[in-house]
Each structure stands twice: as structure tokens, then as C-alpha cells.
Specification:
2 copies of one chain form a homodimer. By secondary structure, chain A is of the alpha/beta class. The first copy, chain A, contains 14 helices and 17 strands. Helices cover 41% and strands 24% of the residues of chain A.
Chain lengths: 428, 428
């Protein structure tokens, strides 16, 4: 089963909108074992939209059209599908009533244009899921192949609004494609989030396991470097049932965790921030951060996580050196040192009355500071009262990249340092 | 002149990387008056890459291939172009030496694989710009059209690394396309950055001007809502020379500024952060920020701007209420109020010894706080000593969207409030 994606919209060609929909659909197709060899972007022009769909039908068994289902003159996908299916556009009464009801339910008058959205090629049916006002379409079509045999093909149309599109793809398009492909196998994937090794370092640690999996063919592994999100290792397993696929994933996760140990900080949607907040919450500890070069990025990332407020007390952004001296009681002197980082962590912990303090100070560039090159970063964590047996640890690193990358790597590195200490405390 | 983009890489089809390169190239082509009707993504498969390029050559006069120029087995673009041009791959000695020198200059051993990058189809030439180790290619090809006439076409190949790609497109590909198209007209664009009105509000303010420009056809306007980057108004002008295009832009900018007044905060690469920092620097003032719901995002955005350190002293992230009371001397009581925001701004200004203080406090959600719904945000700015004639201003807003959007709109809104006061001070 081969399926192509045709993204429709002049704004995509003009670069006014980045086509993230096709990427998301491509990922879903791959995860569910459906081949996809081409993706095409085409503007709001009837002939060219029809041409792009016809070409995709020559190369593949199914086509997903994304976009162009709105209520305006520019929205040509319905018309294009009438041409492709060779069947006239008809008004669907039930759908007209449904759309009318949607507007009435919100106490709004329905613009007459929206009735256009109740039109469908006569041979097409609507996609069951309809989270917005634009219905999706399933259009069966037939073509004669080079061998003279009839090919039963299908064109789906989904709106360009991401959450509407995603619900239709997951709810109808993928299951329908799998049914047409006679796929009985189920694919499931799980992503281990790691931090502390490069991609080639991970590949070395896992070399034996990768060779074994390559030989067996199932599950498979993929690496993906993701900046501040860590380095991801995705496991994909295929099995006759969801239960069996999940159990393959669980077994493989256990194997990889044995090999990678502490490098694995989370799974799937975990972030280093959410993991650290969860550990602190479980330990009944609160956190304060002192930031120099990151300027508030550590705090901002922590606050991205809903519910951060029961753990995260806040922080001090001590960008100027004398804010470090005056507000955080850092001894006067050089500030790109591990000693200064420790003093910042101790100071912010005390000032904000938190159990745990962490701090970063360093050179984001473009210019050197205190004769240190950009990328030089000192960081520290203080867990508990340092004068009563608390843990104090610090680190000096040389990070690669430009200003933004240095600051982002600083965020995940210091949170990773804190995580290691929290895990140790928990396992004591 | 029609030009298509073919983005090459299996990782693009699998959704592991979002294809932002094609969007950027599409925008450049449009800006320079070159039509682009299709963009295609294709995986690392020789036959399919060749097929995608051949198809694009049937539909268009030029093709830009992006990606697949690296040194590994997966990188098939050179090979595909050998097929398309019908000329063998040859090693280019000068390029071999150049690449060798690049590695030697960095004190690194060159992996043998990198010599692959010195190969080119015999009839192709290298693109002059080469910011990385992957050279770009210009490949003239000829095809016979449906009318039997010879068509002189061209295929460009650029690497997938965005900054390498961009330098080659701007430096060689666009000028070469314009030369081939016999384009003598020059296109220039300028973007006004606005904040404070919705897209439809702007359209209303500019209705008369838009009608006049639509009638004249040159320059043209486009609106683009860009979240924390503000609402952009792009002016594009066409003229026989760059000087004339620039002077059209300048005249139109003046017209629009008359109509939009204080809504325009910057031009092109200006951000609200860079504009506020520039104003403060010009006035010899320093800044401190107190953040609650944004958790450090204001400080982090300010520090994105190189050179922030001579203005931005730092801040306090007072996420927990008692950090507001204890560290910033906010009177005990409700914290989602304009009074609390003012107290935070006054407090952080004094604590950090800055000339200007700003503060935000509010509800990012998902849960209400102090019976206020998500999106309720109070903000304040204090310019100068409030007990010696300094300016104190505050604002209460109800922002739309989810947790992230509320926090992002908070950042640009409070910086916009500060900007207005700094502009007033400057014009006093």
C-alpha cells in the first residue's frame, strides 16, 4: 500500500506557512507501515490541484489531500475531487443541517458561504470525525493500470487546521488504509529520551543490540538528535495485536535501559523539565534557580509544564555581575567559575527559601568574557542545606554552537545534573 | 520563468524533520517574481529522485534540489544529477584540495568519504558560495519541448543545512534565475512590525490605502500574524533599479507609518526586545524584570539579543506568591492585581538597582487562580524613581489561547507597554 500526501494552498508555496501537516501525516503513515514516497505542495489552482492528484494516483494507491476545504473561493479541493472522481458536486442535506446547528449552538449566524462545505462529490462520503465546520471526504476512484487491470484507489480530503486534520487521519484515514492494505499487523512505538552521550556515542553503546535487531528485523530503532529535548531513541514494534506490540516495546525498553542506564531520563512526552519537577514533587522538595547566560530560560521551560507551581518557587536572573554579588551574595571576583556557580545556587536557595538551588553562569557569546571563549559554562546544584550535609556539585563544560544553542544546551545540561542527584537521593 | 523545489531526504517523508527549507526558498522565489507552482519531497532513492527532477523539468524551466549533498551513502543528489544531465561524475581536483584544506585548517583529519563531495557531473559547475564542506551545483540541461524546440533548463543543487542553503540561494541561484528570466525589474521588500491591533483592525485602518495600492498594483501589501513577533505588514515594491525599489519602499513606509502611528514598533529584523533594548541604551537606562506567569521568558527573550548585557541587569522570577511578598516586598494579599504588578516592578527595580522595572503577574492556566480565569494578566512598568516623579503605569488584559500563547502574548504586551513610555519620554 502506497499513499502520497498532496498539501494544497498557495500560502504553502509562498512560504507564509510551513507545511507541518505533511510531516505529521508522513510520520503517522510510517508508524503504521504504509509506504509514502512523495509529498507534493500545490497552490490554489484547479488544474494544477487536479494534475497533482492524478499524478499521485498513477504512482500510489491512495492520496491524502490536506487543505482547501474552507468556505471561501480559494478553497478548491471539493471541486478538484469532483473532477478526479468524475461525479458532480451535490449538496448533502444532513450535513447542511449539521453545520447550521454548529453555528446556532454557538449563538452565531451562519455565513451563507459555509453551506459550500456541505457539498461533496456524489460518489464520496464524509469522514465521521468532524471537530470543526469543515467535513473531510473519502472518495473511491478507479483507474486502469498499465496491465489493463482495474485499480481500486482512494482519495481522502482533510482540512488544513492541524487538530481537525489529526483527528480525521487517526480516526478514519489510517484505519481505512490499513483495512484496504489488508494489514492485520499493529505498529506501536515508544521513544526513550536520553541525555549525556552523542549520537555516535549511543550507537557505540548499543552496537551489539542494533546488530541483533537488524538481523531480527523487529522491533527497529531510530535515533533523533533534538537539541534541548535530548537525543531520542525510538523503538517501533510490529505484532498481530496491540497487546503483543506493547509487550515487545516493553521488553526492548528494558534491554535498552540495561545498556544505557542513567542516560535515559524519560519516555515519550517526558521532558527533562517535567522529569525533574516530578522527582522533586515526589521528594517533597522545592526548587529555586539562579541564571546568568540563560537569562530566564530555565525558569521559563519549567513553567511550560502545567502544575510547576507546587515545586518551582522562582529564581533570580543575575545577568549583571553586581546582581550576583549584591542579590545572591556571590564573592566579588570572576563570575565564570564553578565557585561562582555554587555561590549563586546557595544564594538563590536561601533567598527564595527553597530546598534545592541550581545555577548557571558562562559565556553565550558572541564575545568572550573574562578571557573565556563562548560556550564556557559553569553550573552548580545544591540539594538540601549545604551546612547540614546537603549535596553540592558543580560542573564546567565547553558547549558547541552559537548563542542560542549554547544557552539551550546549558538548560538541559544543568537540569540533567540535578536529575542525577535526585535519582541518587531517591535510591539511597 | 517557473522554478520548482525538490526537497530530498527520507527523513522529510518520515516527518523526522519539517521541511522549512522549501518554505524559505518559496518565499525567496515569490519575492523575486519567479513563479513556483509545485514543491515535491522525495526520499533517498535514486530512481525516484531522478523521476521527481525529470517531472519538474517537464513542468518548469528550473529546479532547485535541496539536500542529499552530504558525504554518506544516503546522499544521492550528485548521482541523480549525473543521470539527469547525462554526464559522468568526475572528481574536481581544485575542490578536493579546497575541502582537504578546510579540514586541515580546523586541525582535523578529513574522513575519506568527504572526497565524494568534490565530485560533480562533468557538465556542471560549482556554486561560488560554500559556507560548509558541501559544494552546491549548477547543472545546465536541455530537453526537447512538445513543439520540438530545444528548451534550455537548469537544475541547482544546494545542501540541506539551512544557513549553507540560504547563502547559496541568495548569492547564486536567485541572481542566476533572474538573469535567465531576463528579469530587469528588481523586487525589494520591507516588513513593518506592529503590535496593538488585530489583523482585521489593521485592515480597517489601512482600507483606503489598500484600495489605492490594489488599483496601482505596485507596491503590494501582505499581513502576517506572527504571535510573539507581532503582526507583520510586508511591503513589496518592483522597479527597474534597486534604488528606485528602495525609494518606493521608503515612500510607502512613510504612508503606512502616518496611518498606523505608534502601532509600528520596528522594521524587518527588529523584535520588540531589540527595540526596547535600543531605546533604553539610547536613554542610558538599565532594566530589571519581575516575572510570575512567564517564569523567565521575558528575561530569556531579552538575552536572545546580543549585547543585552549593557542594559539588562536581570530579574526575579517570583512564581510562588511568598517570593513576591518576601523578595519583592509586594504587600500580602491577592497577586493577580494591577497593584501587585506595580509593587513587583517597584520591588525588582530597587532590588537590582535598575532605572526601569517591569512586572507581570497573572493566570497562564489551565486552572483559574484567585477566581480569575486563564488569560487574566496584570502588568506594570516603572520608569525612574516613582517617589521622585518617575512614571508608573499598569494594565489589566484578558489574553486568548492556551498556556503557551498566554505567556507569549504577555511578553510582547508588557514590552510594548514599556516601549510606549520610552518613546514618550524620548519625545518630551
Amino acid at each position: 500500500m502506497r499513499c502520497e500526501v498532496v498539501a494544497i494552498g498557495t500560502e504553502l508555496l509562498l512560504g507564509q506557512i510551513v507545511d507541518t501537516n505533511s510531516s505529521w501525516i508522513g510520520e503517522q503513515l510510517a508508524l503504521h507501515g504504509i509506504d509514502s514516497f512523495f509529498q507534493t505542495k500545490v497552490g490554489d489552482n484547479l488544474d494544477r490541484v487536479v494534475g497533482a492528484i492524478e499524478l499521485a494516483l498513477e504512482r500510489s494507491d491512495a492520496v491524502i489531500c490536506c487543505g482547501g476545504l474552507g468556505p471561501t473561493q480559494d478553497d478548491l479541493t471539493r471541486e478538484a475531487l469532483a473532477v478526479v472522481t468524475g461525479s458532480p458536486l451535490v449538496s448533502d442535506e444532513a450535513m447542511e443541517e449539521h453545520i447550521f446547528g454548529l453555528f446556532a449552538g454557538r449563538g452565531r449566524r451562519m455565513p451563507a458561504n459555509n453551506l459550500l462545505q456541505a457539498m461533496r462529490p456524489e460518489t464520496a462520503s464524509f469522514i465521521e470525525q468532524m471537530p470543526g465546520t469543515a467535513p473531510g471526504l473519502v472518495c473511491p476512484v478507479q483507474r486502469v493500470g498499465a496491465d489493463g487491470a482495474t485499480r481500486d484507489l482512494v482519495v481522502y480530503a482533510v482540512p488544513g487546521v492541524p487538530w481537525e486534520m489529526q483527528e480525521m487521519i487517526s480516526g478514519t484515514v489510517i484505519p481505512d488504509l490499513q483495512r484496504r492494505a489488508g494489514v492485520t499487523a499493529v505498529l506501536r512505538s515508544r521513544t526513550l529520551r536520553t541525555w549525556g552521550e552523542t549520537e555516535s556515542g549511543l550507537a557505540e553503546l548499543l552496537a551489539g543490540r542494533i546488530a541483533a535487531l537488524d538481523a531480527a528485523g523487529n522491533p527497529t530503532l531510530a535515533f533523533l538528535a533534538s537539541g534541548m529535548e535530548g537525543l531520542k531513541v525510538r523503538i517501533t514494534a510490529k505484532a498481530p495485536t496491540a497487546e503483543e506490540a506493547e509487550s515487545l516495546l516493553a521488553a526492548e525498553e528494558a534491554e535498552l535501559r540495561d545498556l544505557l542506564g542513567e542516560l535515559v531520563f524519560g519516555v515519550d512526552d517526558d521532558t527533562m523539565e517535567s522529569v525533574v519537577l516530578d522527582l522533586l514533587r515526589a521528594q517533597g522538595r522545592t526548587l529555586a534557580v539562579a541564571e546568568s547566560l540563560t537569562g530566564g530560560m530555565i525558569g521559563s521551560r519549567l513553567c511550560d509544564v502545567p502544575g510547576a507551581s507546587d515545586v518551582f518557587r522562582g529564581g533570580v536572573v543575575s545577568y549583571a555581575s553586581d546582581v550576583k554579588y549584591d542579590v545572591l551574595d556571590v564573592p566579588t571576583g570572576p563570575v565564570v567559575t564553578e565557585q561562582a556557580a555554587i555561590a549563586m545556587a546557595v544564594g538563590v536557595r536561601r533567598l527564595l527559601g527553597a530546598d534545592v538551588g541550581l545555577a548557571v553562569t558562562g559565556v553565550a557569546g558572541p564575545d568572550p568574557q573574562e578571557d573565556q571563549p563562548p560556550g564556557t559554562v559553569c553550573m552548580a546544584v545544591v540539594v538540601g542545606d549545604p551546612e547540614a550535609g546537603g549535596v553540592v556539585d558543580s560542573l564546567r563544560v565547553q558547549l558547541p554552537g552559537g548563542r542560542r544553542q549554547i544557552r539551550e544546551f546549558t538548560v538541559i545540561t544543568v537540569l540533567g545534573l540535578l536529575r542525577r542527584h535526585l535519582v541518587e537521593v531517591a535510591s539511597d
